[in-house]
C-alpha cells in the first residue's frame, strides 16, 4: 500500500515516544551509496559452475544493496513523527518549525523511492537469472547500481530536508500537555519560580522552549490521586505579547492546548521592578489570549505588602476581583497549602 498520512488525526502520540522512534536520515545519499557498495563487495557467490557462482554473487550484491537502502528509507519514513498524530500542542509547534506540506511530501517521496528500488532490483535479478553470459550478468549488476545511484540522487534534497526537520523535532520540549497543568505567569521577579518550588517540593526540570531564547521550568505535584504538572514560563508569559515577534507569539499561544489553570502572580509591592499598571496589562492580555483557562490570581509577598498596596492594586486593576485571589508568601511559605487546595478544586 502507498505511504499516506492518517487524515483523521484521532490518536495522539506522546512526544517523548515519537522522538525516540526517529531514525535520523543521513547527511547525504553519497554516504549511503558508499555503504551499500562496500557491503556488496564483500559478497561471495556459490555454485558448481563459474556462471552459477557469478549469478549467485551478483544477485546477492543487488539484494544486499536493495535491502539496506529500502530498510533505511522506510525507517526514515515511518519513524519520523506524523504531525497529525501528535497532540495539538506539538502539532502546532511543529507547523511553525517545519514546512508541513514539504515534510509530508518528502516522506511520501522517500517511501515511494523505496518501492521503486524494490521493483528495479526484482527486474535486474530476473534478467540475471535468465542470462547465460557472465559479461551480461556483470553488466546487469552494474546497471542496477547505476539506477540505484540515480534514484538516491533524486531523493537527496528530500533526505537533507527531512534530516533538518528531524533535528528540529528533537528540540521540542518533552512536556506532557495531556497532564492537568498549572501554568504560572506574571511579570519578571514577582516570585514565580519560588512559588513553583514551594508547590512541587522538588528540583524542577529546565527545558528549552522553541523559537525563543528562553526556557520553561517544569515541576510536578501530587494532590490526592492527581499528578499535576506545574510550569513556570520565565521570558514567555512575563511581558506583553505585542513585544514579541509573530513566531514567538505563535509558539507561546500553542500553550492554549494544555488543560488546567493559569496562575497569575502579582507583586503588589512593585519591588519586582514593574509597576502595577504593567503587571495588570500582561494579566488582561492573558485573559484575552487564553480564554478557556481557569484563572487564579496570586498576590505574592504577603509578608511585606500592606493594605495600601492592595488598595492601589485593586484600584488600578479591578478586573482581578472577578477571579479567585490567594495571598501567599513564597519566601515564608505562607498559605501555600491554601493555594494547593484552590488548585485541587479548580482542576
Fold topology:
Elements (H helix, E strand, L loop, with lengths): L14 H6 L8 H13 L8 H30 L8 H10 L2 H31 L3 H36 L10 E6 L6 H9 L4 E4 L6 E9 L2 E7 L13 H8 L5 E8 L9 H14 L4 E6 L7 H10 L7 E4 L8 H11 L1
Parallel strand pairs: 1-4, 1-5, 5-6, 6-7
Antiparallel strand pairs: 2-3, 3-4
Structure overview:
By secondary structure, the protein is of the alpha/beta class. The protein folds into 2 domains: 15-169, Four Helix Bundle (Hemerythrin (Met), subunit A) (Up-down Bundle); 180-346, P-loop containing nucleotide triphosphate hydrolases (Rossmann fold). Helix content is 51%, strand content 13%. It is built from 11 helices and 7 strands. The chain has helices spanning 15-20, 29-41, 50-79, 88-97, 100-130, 134-169, 192-200, 246-253, 276-289, 307-316, 336-346; strands at 180-185, 205-208, 215-223, 226-232, 259-266, 294-299, 324-327. The protein has a 7-stranded mixed sheet, sandwiched between helices. β3 and β4 (226-232) form a beta hairpin. α2 packs across α6, α3 packs antiparallel against α5 and α3 packs parallel to α6. The longest helix is centred in the middle third of the chain and has 36 residues, at 134-169. Mean pLDDT is 86; it is low at 1-13.
